[in-house]
Amino acid sequence: MVPAANLLGFAGQEFARKMPKVAGILIETTFGSVVEIILFVALIVKHDPGTEDGNDNGDEGNLIPTIQAAIIGSIMTNLLLCLGLCFFVGGVRQHEKNQKFHAVVSETGNGVLLVAAFGLLIPSAFYSALKTETVSILHEKFTNGKLHEDIMKISQGTSIVLLVAFALYIVYSCTSAHSIFDEVLEIDEHQDQDREQDAVKPKLTLTESLVAIAIAIVFVAWLLIILVGKIENVVERGVPDQFLGLILLPLVEKAAEHLTAIDDAWDGVINVALYHCIGPSIQTALLNAPLIVLIGWAIGKPIDLNFEIFMILLLVMSILVVGNLLRDGETNWLEGGLLLIVYIIIAIAAFYYPNPDVATSNGIETSVSQNVTIPLDLYKQLLAALPTPHV
User: 67-112: per-residue pLDDT in tens?
Assistant: First the structure.
């Protein structure tokens, strides 16, 4: 899996070199997202709702929690693990001085991520605010089923809006801020400490790059289908769903992309490394996640953006932590180490987070029954509300 993804990343990088600098790095990031999109599509295709009405019940075959965790995990892996390693590795090599990056890369990326997090947060907040207000019988217009239906519509509408936001981000990067980005990337190229060695390395032609990309995509898709088929075996061995989606899957599908970013940081090309971390996070939040919601809608396997509150809070806090570290325009190995510590803490917590069939905060139905004591007056009201049987 990692070699195939690495081939895709290398071929995408060679193809990007044939393009203008800003367009090239956007294309390179997009090729990196292909692996993630294929993974999400494979998961949603394999997903089995388990009930006739499409409500998830937490039983075997329900991959919605894994997909949702993988979306959040992909963003956090880029922001905490990859960026932390970039800061740490670059800071160790240049320990005598802080690494400086341009504000246009950090501020634009962090602002877009905050907006994306807001969009991903809304369905979860909507559900959490209203889930205790649903009543099965007394208020037929606001049942639990109606709430889930509203959440699905909100998620689908939000996905469309997020795709529009992604289009605006691309247009801005290629037009309004093009000259600034181009200047920043040009400066980084001259600061590349391995520039001379890279210049003499053999390069792929445009045709060779396209052929390599096509071959890599085929192998990646094939391997991801095999990987998805083994997920249930992994879960049966005691690996929690949330840990699988939040930590393991992003590590596998983003390994090659992370190695590229870390190599850039080691070479002193910190702006490019920063873009390799923030860019894929933006694409996951504004493109990949909305896209999988719409794909699920189209194929009759609906998936919403009603994430576990635990997950969405981790995402928002991660963006805030990274944004605070990027605020001064400088970084060092200590800040990288701190990001890695945050990621490790999240991984530990995710390992102990219960599966949806045990506990959940996003409304996935479970098969666990509970005895509930209600007042006598309410019981009489419930009986009175029941339809009278016809003899």
Answer: 999 999 999 999 999 999 999 999 898 877 888 887 777 788 888 9
| Strands (E) located in the chain | 99-100, 330-331
The 10s digit of each residue's pLDDT in 163-214 is 999 999 888 887 766 666 666 666 666 566 565 555 556 677 878 888 888 8
pTM to 2 decimal places: 0.82
32 and 288 Cβ atoms separated by less than 8 Å: no
CA angle 190, 113, 257 (to 5 degrees): 50
C-alpha closest to that of 38 among 325, 291, 334: 291
Nearest to 268 by CA among 343, 198, 181, 344: 198
Domains of the chain: 1-385 (1.20.1420.30)
Residues with Cβ within 8 Å of residue 326, at least 6 apart in sequence: 101, 106, 107, 110
Residue type, 346: I
DSSP letter string, 170-211 = HHHHHTTTHHHHHHHHHHHHHH-TTHHHHHHS----HHHHHH
CA-CA distance, 280 to 36, in Å (whole number)?
Answer: 10
* The two three-digit tokens of residue 170, written as one number: 């691309």
**Which residue blocks in the chain are alpha helix, DSSP H?**
2-16, 21-46, 64-76, 83-93, 103-130, 144-174, 178-191, 195-200, 206-229, 231-236, 241-243, 249-253, 255-266, 270-283, 289-298, 309-326, 333-351, 376-385
Q: Can you read off the two tokens belonging to residue 49?
A: 């709702």
- Could you tell me the two tokens for 37? 């999109």
